[in-house]
Each structure stands twice: as C-alpha cells, then as structure tokens.
Design a protein that fits this description.
- The chain is an alpha/beta fold.
- Helices cover 27% and strands 21% of the residues.
- Strands 4-1-9-10-11-12-13-14 form an 8-stranded mixed beta sheet, with helices on both faces. The chain has a 4-stranded mixed beta sheet with strand order 3-2-7-8.
- The N terminus is likely disordered.
Length: 368
C-alpha cells in the first residue's frame, strides 16, 4: 500500500495557541450541482442531446469552501441543507470528504435542496437552477444557527459575497472580531453600479471584482485604473482580467502588481472565480508578497478550468505539485515565467499523487 501524501498546512509556521481555531468562515447557499459534459454544442429546442459524461457535487458556496479546504485552510461553513438525499450527500461530501466544519450549518426537515444543472460545451457553460429560500431558523435550531446573522465564529478571515442594497450583519461582526474580510460581487441587476449600495464594503480588507464589474462601479474605462479607484473604499483591490491575468493595488503599502494568466485549455469555467479567491486568501493569510498571491490565485484558477465541475475541479496541493513538476520538465519553458512560481518550491509536497482526503465523488452515491 502506498503512503498517502502529506496534508500541507500553508499557515504551519504562523499558528499560535491563542489564534482562532477557524482560518476562514463563509456562509451562503449550497446547491447540488449536476454537470453534463462532452456536449458538442448547446442544446437545441425540440431535440434531445446526449452528454458523454456527467458529474455531481456540492455547488454554490460549497465551491469556495472546498477550494479553501483543499488548500489546507481550516474552513467553517454556515449553510442550510435539506433533509433529502441531495442534502445528505452534500453534507457528507463537505464534512467527511473535505474536512469542512459544518457546526454552524443546519438541516431543515421538509425543505428540498437547491439544484443546478450545468451544461459545459466549447469552454462555456449554461446553467438552469431551481430552489426555494430556506426558512428562517426557529427557536429549536442549534444556538449557533440562531445567532448566525450577527455572531459568526472567530476566524482569521471571512469571505463575503456582496449584494447591492443588502447588508449582512455577520460581516461587521466578523470584522469587529479581527477577521480579514474578503469580498466578491455578482452582476448588479439594478444597473446602478453604485458602491454606496454595498454597505458591507467598508468592513472589508479586500475587494475582488472582475474587470467589467470594477469598471462599472468606478465609472472608468480601464480595469487597472478601476483597481486604483477602488482603493478609496478598501485597502486592497484585486481585479481579475480574464485571459490577461489579474491586477492588484495595496493602498497600505503603496504597491501594485500584475501577473499574466497561465495559458490552458479551458473545459469548464464553473467555480474558477471561487478558486481564485481561495488562492488569494491563502496567500494573504500566509503573508506572501502581493505578486505571489496573484500568481498563486491565478494558477489555482487555471488548474480548475481544466476539469469539469465547480467543487470537483478545485485543486489541492498534490495537483499544484503535479503542475509544477510538469512545467519544469518542458524544455521550451521561459525561464522568467518559471521564476515567477519559484516560491512554490518550498511549499509543495515531494510527490504529486492523490490528495489524502476523499474527494466529493461525481455521483450521488452507491448503495453499500
């Protein structure tokens, strides 16, 4: 029997007895993701399309939680799960398969799990989702669930998804308790693109929009200019540039960094943004220089889009080690490009074999 790969703790040399037990806290909706792969084109109305492959895994906020956990961070997730087989599967995959702390989560009898069906083709995806808002916690819910809106667990960091016009009390609570709050944002359906409509942004250490979102919020026509403008609101602005990479500005140190994207064959972009944030959070908590954080985040995102699914494709240290071994063996690699990732050398396991944790399996499960 082969020896399992070691679990890499990126914060090993930084931990102290008085530190929080939790590295990263996040909350949101967990979906059951069903991903159809191997489609030659988009489905056509009135016809039946057959996919050559299919996978299933926890999705939604589970993409981010899984990405964080696979990078070795002690991750706590507060979410609502249905008591159907989908909910049981997602809970087991996250808690038993990924080692994510679900003590702040709850199961609601009679509430069915939200579901997303994703169809991946030509490097893009089309999704159809269904679900109902989870019922509010009752007096009989576990104490942690009743106090969740304002009392998250003490953590080194928290990840928040901002919604225009909506305030989440737990974000301010996490910041008061000393957590570094990292925020992303979705498309503003109101069309106003008003930073004042993101009230929790003032509690955040970092804001990580994509280029289009950043330019719309700052009324600029250049994503790099948008990043500088965003530092008037947050200490650290990170703007993802798609195929061009990412650009970041740190107001506190006055530094800026830009790292190009890694060229890969993208099969499915599901969850790539979540993986990027997870990589950046990991590097920030580990105290890496800004450019290294950007490079690592971009690398993890690039590795994820080469596989299908959201949480299924989130890389761990074994996959990162495998990539590093492969690129160094290519004779035509640009030495300067390799130097950009040389900081990984002291972090990676000696082998690129499978991650020791049981991954979320690509099906609902088999009877024993």
């Amino acid at each position: 029997m082969s020896t399992p790969d070691p679990v890499i703790d990126p914060l090993l040399g930084l931990r102290a007895p008085q530190d929080p037990a939790c590295d990263v806290f996040l909350t949101g909706t967990v979906f059951l993701d069903i991903i159809f792969t191997g489609l030659d084109s988009a489905p056509v109305r009135g016809t039946e399309s057959w996919a050559r492959g299919m996978g299933s895994s926890p999705g939604g906020v589970a993409n981010m939680a899984t990405a964080l956990a696979r990078l070795g961070l002690r991750t706590s997730l507060a979410a609502t799960f249905g008591d159907d087989h989908y909910g049981e599967y997602c809970w087991d995959a996250l808690e038993q398969g990924e080692g994510i702390d679900l003590s702040m989560s709850r199961t609601v009898p009679g509430w069915h799990s939200p579901v997303t069906v994703s169809m991946a083709y030509e490097g893009e995806r089309t999704m159809v989702s269904h679900g109902h808002e989870a019922p509010a916690p009752t007096a009989s819910a576990p104490p942690g669930c009743r106090t969740l809106p304002s009392c998250p667990p003490r953590a080194r960091a928290a990840v928040a998804s901002l919604t225009p016009g909506r305030r989440e009390p737990w974000v301010a609570g996490a910041a008061r308790d000393g957590a570094m709050v990292f925020a992303d944002v979705g498309w503003d359906d109101t069309g106003r693109w008003d930073l004042d409509a993101l009230p929790d942004l003032g509690h955040c250490l970092a804001f990580l929009p994509n280029a289009e979102e950043a330019m719309r919020y700052t009324r600029t026509d250049c994503p790099r200019a948008a990043a500088h403008a965003l530092t008037e609101r947050v200490p650290l602005a990170v703007v993802t540039l798609g195929a061009e990479g990412a650009y970041a500005v740190d107001r506190e140190t006055g530094t800026a960094a830009e790292v190009p994207a890694i060229g890969v064959e993208a099969l499915d972009p599901t969850g790539a943004g979540d993986v990027f944030v997870a990589g950046f959070v990991t590097g920030t908590l580990a105290g890496w220089p800004l450019a290294d954080r950007l490079a690592f985040a971009g690398l993890t995102a690039a590795l994820s889009v080469q596989e299908f699914g959201g949480s299924l494709s989130a890389p761990g240290w074994a996959e990162i080690a495998g990539w590093w071994q492969q690129v160094r063996s290519c004779a035509d690699q640009d030495p300067a490009a390799l130097d950009r990732y040389a900081f990984l050398e002291k972090l990676l396991p000696a082998t690129s074999r499978g991650w020791p944790l049981r991954r979320a399996v690509p099906t609902i499960g088999f009877r024993q």
